[in-house]
Amino acid sequence: MEEKRLLGDFVEKSKSRQRRTKHWLIFPLVVLLGVLTIKNRLKTCPSPPNSEYLQYEGESISWERCGNLEGIPVECSRIDVPMDQFNQNNPEDKTFSIPIIRMRGQNATQNILLNPGGPGGSGISLIYHGGPQLKTLIGEGFHLVSFDPRGVNSSTPQISCYPDVATRQRLSPVRSRNIEADSPEVFAWTQNYVKTCIDTVGEHLGYVNTPQVAADMNSILDALGQKDMFYYGFSYGTIIGQTYAAMFPERSRRIIIDGVANNFEWYGEGFEGASSLVNTDAVLDGFFDECIKAGQEYCSLARLVDSKEELNDLVMSKLEELQQQPLSIYIDNTSYGLLTYDDIWYNGFFIALYSPKKWAGLAKDIYNLILGNATDSFLAYSSGAQEWSVDDTNSVVELNDGLLTGPGYWPQDRQSILDHMLLLFNASMFDAWQDKIFYQRQQWTLPKTHSFTPPKTVKTAHPILIMSTTYDPVCPIIAAHAANEAFEGSQIVEAKGYGHCTVVVPSVCVSKHLRAYLYEGKLPDGYTKCEGDSPYFTNPEKGSSYVAQKVFDNSDDREIHLAQMELALNWEFRAPHLT
Ligand SMILES: *[C@@H]1O[C@H](CO)[C@@H](O)[C@H](O)[C@H]1NC(C)=O
Ligand SMILES: *[C@@H]1O[C@H](CO)[C@@H](O)[C@H](O)[C@H]1NC(C)=O
Ligand SMILES: *[C@@H]1O[C@H](CO)[C@@H](O)[C@H](O)[C@H]1NC(C)=O
Ligand SMILES: *[C@@H]1O[C@H](CO)[C@@H](O)[C@H](O)[C@H]1NC(C)=O
Ligand SMILES: *[C@@H]1O[C@H](CO)[C@@H](O)[C@H](O)[C@H]1NC(C)=O
């Protein structure tokens, strides 16, 4: 049977990959209002010691080899950009240094810039950990270029509010998971946070915002000798994309935004109605529903109950137990601690909502937890198992972007901001997760250095392409509609399914629209829905990671499908550090 043969082929491939898993590194990438990690089965090679500089006609920068991904060479460079792109008198010694990475396309004459989200996501990491798969999606006609935006990770100066890692680990934790109970502490903690950011970072702090990043992308393009912007941004990367397209419409030749955040709310308009979590609970419901539909062979939890309602009740009652009494887990004298309700709810469930390929694993962990073995849950979801972010751009960019931050806008007492949140937080059971940033908005004293407000109507050089899943836990599809209204001639391609950004819903149909747009400038005629090509639950015990989930007649389609599966499985997200 055709399908069996396919399975055989790809199981082989996935086995050889799994042998390499020892070398995986988990890099924190940041995603809209949360932190994203991409785990990948790739090992990056260090660049050879005497690597030569590479130069290309028309470009004003030179490159060095900086690795090799699945046989594809990668090259790196850096540019300096003015600290303030919008001030003609910016002193020459005040700059950010932006690292750039590129994976060359065989038939390419143009570069496409990518951003993974955040704020705070590292584009360098994106290429190292998803570059070959993204290349398969985009094709050989483009050079894939990404960069660490100003302040992020290996750009310099790095925007960290703590002088060193040890200080960060000692002083950054604050409990903010219960809106009312944690309020006094978060309110007080935030006062120090704002002071230490301003003290530690200095003058550069004020210039870490999205309009500056948009201008930096032009600096990159200029260095590459390219006039037209080709851009693909995910999650917060859609804020960069929308900002760029609004500020530089004449250069916006191809702009793709995927997993769209509401640009108007981001910059402060209609902020009172902050709507990013309006579909979150629908995704949770989808988890229960799809688990029961998948059945017990694929979803462990389906062994315990027969309906999604029963499953919901079962999980909620287990969580309630944990809320009353956290569990203590002892593995050995170096590995032990508590497993709390917050751990399971935010690091387990909430993060899994971003990427359905994690659902089978979550179901298995929760199944074991309910049956009395909490070890795997502890190892995966306890606060000690979460990674530390390396910089503070995740909050700093949001604070510097939003026009409605600081004492001029918010009453300065704790009760007012708490009352505001209590009124506002009614969209989702995961609402409390946003509360820290509200105190930061209230107390952020740094003056705004930009005056960008998103225009209601933008005519770009070529219409933009908007992509979304049906139910996105943090960037609901209503934000895609808002972008659709603002950008003339734009179209939406919806990947039918759950999760954050279309990359988590493998769909060859989506990739065909992506290619038609990139290569021929073709947008679909109207609002377009694409079916996903893979089930939500694939049996983890059967090692089906890279197995084709569908038979494709066309070998290009099959290759794209496998790349999508790989991206979907490895595109992982993580909440901001809690405790
Ligand atoms: C490159 O372009 C040529 C001519 O258009 C085409 O025949 C070839 O298949 C392309 N190669 C790749 C790898 O896309
Ligand atoms: C951040 O940069 C350092 C090198 O400066 C690198 O080792 C690390 O992997 C990067 N982290 C991410 C998330 O990209
Ligand atoms: C930790 O426990 C192991 C036994 O599992 C013991 O051999 C070791 O000495 C202990 N470490 C310390 C620092 O006491
Ligand atoms: C609990 O689960 C862990 C990890 O799967 C396993 O190693 C351990 O043996 C289990 N403990 C019991 C008591 O079954
Ligand atoms: C949530 O609160 C907002 C603002 O007070 C209100 O407009 C909206 O109707 C509320 N939504 C629900 C579902 O209660």
Automatic annotation (TrEMBL):
Q: Which residues form the AB hydrolase-1 domain?
A: 112-266
From the Swiss-Prot or TrEMBL record, what is one GO molecular function term? hydrolase activity
An example GO biological process term is:
antibiotic biosynthetic process
TM regions (residue ranges): 21-38
In what residue span(s) does the Peptidase S33 tripeptidyl aminopeptidase-like C-terminal domain sit? 442-530
**Keyword annotations of the record:** Hydrolase, Membrane, Transmembrane, Transmembrane helix
Cross-referenced SUPFAM superfamilies: alpha/beta-Hydrolases
Looking up Pfam families in the UniProt record yields: Abhydrolase_1, Abhydrolase_4
Identify its protein family. Answer: Belongs to the peptidase S33 family.
UniProt name for this protein:
AB hydrolase-1 domain-containing protein
